[in-house]
Amino acid sequence: QVQLVESGGGLVQPGGSLRLSCAASGIIFNINAMGWYRQAPGKQRELVATFITGGITNYADSVKGRFTISRDNAKNTVNLHMNSLKPEDTAVYYCNAKIRVRGLGNVNDYWGQGTQVTVSS
Questions:
Q1: What burial class does residue 64 get, using C-beta atoms within 10 Å of its C-beta: 0-12 exposed, 13-18 middle, 19+ buried?
Q2: pLDDT truncated to tens, each residue of the chain (121 aa)?
Q3: How would you classify residue 74: left for phi > 0, otherwise alpha for psi between -120 and 50, otherwise beta?
Q4: Is the four-CA dihedral 92, 51, 44, 4 of positive or negative sign?
């Protein structure tokens, strides 16, 4: 069993900052990748940022230069530092992890419950 627990969402004014965290727990053998997706009201889910094995990161064009993704491998945690937030960043943010469970050979996708980020004055 694997559980992803997200924290750090909330209300912030435009131009402000938030830090999201996601911790994976369970019978984890290894984590191939962790990342963040978001879904705004009436919009499709979209990739925000990913942190892939080897330290490779990828960002959506809309957040490049403003968001930074990082991982704490010892804690099985991924963080998303969000700066210069805009109203259009308002969305439910979902943590995603590609994890191989101990005792199994396959890699599965796991998702957090989502955390609300609201950017408004």
A1: exposed
A2: 799 999 999 999 999 999 999 999 998 888 989 999 999 999 999 999 999 888 899 999 999 999 999 998 888 999 999 999 999 999 999 999 999 988 888 899 999 999 999 999 9
A3: alpha
A4: negative
Distance CA 12, CA 54 (A): 33
Place of tokens 């101990």: 102
* Amino acid type, 37: Y
Question: Phi and psi at residue 55, in whole multiples of 5°?
Answer: 90, 10
Q: What are phi and psi of 28, to 5 degrees?
A: -90, 130
C-alpha closest to that of 9 among 34, 32, 36, 31: 36
Residue 52: exposed, middle, or buried by beta-carbon count in 10 A (0-12, 13-18, 19+)?
A: middle
For residues 115 and 92, what is the distance between their CA atoms, to the nearest angstrom?
5
Question: CB count, 10 Å around CB of 47?
Answer: 14
